[in-house]
Design brief:
By secondary structure, the chain is α/β, with parallel strands linked by helices. The chain has helices at about 20-35, 45-55, 85-95, 115-125, 135-140, 155-170, 190-205, 220-225, 235-240, 250-260, and strands at about 5, 35-40, 60-65, 70, 75-80, 100-105, 110, 130, 150, 175-180, 180-185, 210-215, 230, 245. The protein has 2 domains: about 5-80 and about 190-260, 3-Layer(aba) Sandwich (Rossmann fold), CATH 3.40.50; about 85-185, 2-Layer Sandwich (Hypothetical Protein, Haloacid Dehalogenase-like Hydrolase, Chain: A, domain 2). The strands form 2 sheets. An 8-stranded mixed β-sheet has the order 5-4-3-2-1-12-13-14, sandwiched between helices. Strand 12 (about 210-215), helix 8 and strand 13 form a beta-alpha-beta unit. Helix 1 (about 20-35) runs parallel beside helix 10 (about 250-260). It starts with a strand and ends with a helix.
């Protein structure tokens, strides 16, 4: 039986302009009434997950920034991971050659070194404003403790640049496409899959006792943890191919679990 349901946010639970379907909220409430706990696993920041849970009037475990931070539903910090100064300097130095917008996230804030019109577009997708700091590079590892580097660009550029980055950095960092316009660069072994395994160890829950749903390449490590994985029908075909079942909405995944007698 399923004891934990894990959902991605953007493109999965969260639609345009931060819209959440009432049917999805009701499905989460239905799960909670059957003692199935909820978790959110996303590339977004901890305070953004907290705001989304507040809007749904629900409690849940939180995996933010692709696993850099893990919080239990009782607000206990279970894990945190940031780049060392030397590794952060190395990453920033090597990604500056790409003609894309670079942002750096810490536990609480997101920074960029200079303002342009794309920053306003990115801000519209966030629950907080990006801080423009011309001294960002010099403050890495000091006043800025980076947990995630993000490259923002056109969909056409993302796949090409992602391949170059993987070749360039190898296994020294974790790199994945978290959105059609976004590449995330994380400390090594920081991904949704490993963070879920850490959460399961804390909860004493087995991988076959969870279900998860997502829509992007940063969800593949999550899909690999459990046989009960769901991909959104809007996901890239390669993402869909790695999930057990493809659905149109989050609540359809919950309905499928019920139909299979797992909740």
């Amino acid at each position: 039986m399923i004891k934990l349901f894990i959902s991605d946010l953007d493109g999965t639970l969260l639609g345009d302009e931060h819209y959440i379907k009432q049917e999805d909220i009701h499905s989460f409430q239905w799960l909670l009434n059957r003692n199935v706990e909820l978790a959110i696993a996303t590339g977004r920041m901890e305070h953004e997950i907290t705001e989304i849970l507040r809007r749904m009037k629900l409690k849940g475990h939180r995996i933010s920034q692709n696993g850099a931070f893990i919080y239990g539903q009782n607000d206990m910090l279970l894990h945190s991971e940031t780049f060392t100064k030397s590794s952060a300097d190395h990453v920033l130095h090597n990604i500056q050659e790409y003609p894309m917008i670079t942002t750096i996230s810490t536990a609480t804030d997101t920074y960029t070194s200079e303002y342009n019109e794309w920053i306003d577009i990115i801000n519209e997708q966030l629950f907080h404003e990006i801080i423009v700091n011309p001294n960002m590079a010099h403050e890495l590892g000091q006043s800025i403790q980076p947990s995630k580097f993000t490259l923002h660009g056109s969909e056409e550029d993302i796949t090409h640049v992602h391949q170059q980055l993987v070749h360039q950095f190898g296994k020294t960092v974790d790199i994945f496409i978290s959105h059609k316009n976004v590449i995330d660069i994380m400390p090594p072994s920081i991904n949704k899959g490993n963070s879920i395994l850490a959460l399961l160890d804390h909860l004493n829950v087995k991988p076959d006792e969870i279900a998860c749903i997502g829509d992007s390449f940063n969800d593949l490590s999550m899909f690999a943890v459990t046989p009960n994985s769901y991909a959104m029908s809007t996901a890239h075909p390669d993402v869909q191919a790695n999930a057990h079942t493809v659905v149109n909405h989050v609540h359809e995944a919950v309905d499928d679990l019920a139909h299979r007698g797992l909740v």
